[in-house]
Amino acid sequence: MPLLYDFDPLVDNITVTVTIKEIRALKTIDLLSEPDFYVKVKINDKEFISDVWENMKYVENPDFSVTSEVPKDDEFVNITIELWDKNNKIDRLCDISMDDGNFTQARTADIVYSIAAGVWWGDDSLGDPSGLGRLNGCDDNSIYQEDRDCELWFDITQNDFDQDGFPYWLETEAYNTSPLISNLGEDADQDGIPIEWEHFYGLTYFEWGHDEGYYMVYDPFSWENYTSIDEDNDALNNIEEYKTWQWGSDPYRQDIFLEIDQMQKQPGINETTVPLESYEHIRDSHAKHNIVWHVDDGRLGGGEVVPYKADLQEYDLDQFYWKYFMHQNSNNWRRGVFHWGFIGYNVTQTVGFTFGSRIGNMYATDCFYLPALFLKTQVKLIPLFSSLARKTFNNEKQLALIYAGVMMHETGHSLGLNCPGADCHDGKWPWEINYWRYGSYKSVMNYRYVYSALVDYSDGSRGKNDWDDWSSIDLTNINPRPHW
Prior knowledge:
Order of helices and strands: EEEEEEEEEEEHHEEHEHEEHEEEHHHHHE
Distance between the termini: 76 Å
CATH topology of the largest domain: Collagenase (Catalytic Domain)
CATH class of the largest domain: Alpha Beta
Number of domains: 2
Number of helices: 10
Radius of gyration: 25 Å
Largest sheet: 7 strands, mixed
Strand content: 15-25%
Helix content: 10-25%
């Protein structure tokens, strides 16, 4: 039977590929162990099941990709993604979706993909709260409930003749580009962003009402001043969103970037770097609120090691910022995008603190200092009490919680969190009055909780003397501003 319409006459068959890029448990999935995740993907009526990732809370490189041939004359492909936890008796479905449809649909992602335009919509769509290509089980307002909520990153692609990711129909009917030549990297409108970014974040589909059809948010062939556009109000304009795209930023969902630089070990001191688990704690707390937290401690091209200095003083930090973060370039694009955290020894102040940077006449509240030796001593300050407060007797896990709490605390100050319960020095121990006065303020900004197992800001729901940190965060506080 002949095709009614061939959406790509340049290829013999159209295939659609779903790639699972990352899986993260945001809640407790199994009480006695880490989850045993596996994924089910259905493309039209064909189902694929992954192997099991055993005893893993975070699956950072799943290496699971499935491809299926689809009809060349049917514009739309139905895709379903399910995340499961393997158990001895009954496998349990985890939640990666908004609360829509029946019990199963409320936990899975049902998506429609277009082979004509190379875009998708449904339970994941352009501009949704969790970001395109990212699913979040907390999107049904279950942040503080044990609902097996997880985070899953994925991508959907299809084959095309010139392998630039733009389907034949899109190139010939909408973009007027050649389907025979790759257009990757082209910037026809010379606005500083290539066509692939403007396509990925600029084309969507409305599936309801009389306006049903494709809608172009960003036109790759029409110049726009992207330096003035910040759709999600996270201090990253669209040029900066493009520059950080490789690390997962989304122009419609808030992102926080942090560079960590550390001084070399003090001679004779057995000191470690920040435990990687610290970053996972912070990332989880932000992910539940659809703020994606990114850290660069050397893995993204930054993360400098600063030579040891025995008489480190606060005024040295300005020089370190200029040399190791800015790389002595006043126009370094990372300023205003990345916060800077420095870990060192022997600065005048024992505890950590937030400070601002000055380059010329431009000032930004974007830096913090952490004292490595002081934080390490907190592990055994009061052994039994500390272990109970952090819900673990493992020293490494305790240190990870301590670093996570303090990093999140200092970053919180740079985001404008300074309510009455924050930094209350007489609220650390039970015999001090403000320990009880601000007990309802369960936030790392409160000294009562900063070294505990609580790596979170408060949402203001606990009554008197509680404050809503999450709604008060101002990500634009990092923007450099005039200062004389």
